[in-house]
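As promised in the previous annual report, we have extended the structural survey to additional targets. Below is the entry for Nudix hydrolase family protein.
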Amino acid sequence: MHPTEHFKYCPRCAAPRAAKNSGEMPFVCARCGFTYYFNPAVAAAAFIFDSEGRVLLIRRAKNPAAGKLGVPGGFIDYGESAEDGMRREVREEVGLEIDRIQFLVSFPNQYQYREVTYPVVDLYFTADAVRPRSARPLDAVAGIEWRFPIDVPDEECAFDSMRVALASFLNLNDPHE
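The corresponding structure token record, generated without further manual editing, is:
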């Protein structure tokens, strides 16, 4: 269910949402005029490389996409830059410090959590692991794997946005050149 569908009443004055406005964006209260925009959440993730050119992949421990491959990352908190949020998420998920961060690509995503489907803009970066051997599975990570990017099958990717980001990386770094 899209977040707009959860607004049955105005959060300011508690007036019932008009039937004709159900699901519209932005939410505008017919009684008090309160306006709420349903903007997407922002997430940042990194293709983190070791000195051999392998990328760190995580095996997701929780839904959505439990058991599938992802890259370390997550939602950006208020007041954080995408880079700072990504660094925090990388530390929380695999215990690594990273450097040489470069933006790669962004792509829209849908993140299903409980009964809500959140619209998300995923920002993907590349980075180098400072001490790759210290990587370990931590928060919501069932396991870690180091693979060459060309060896990551689409069907194992947890999210469509990751497939797009991986394809973008491979297009920019064609292993056949």
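The radius of gyration is 19 Å. Residues 41-172 form a domain with the Nucleoside Triphosphate Pyrophosphohydrolase fold (CATH 3.90.79.10). These points will be discussed at the next consortium meeting with the crystallography subgroup.
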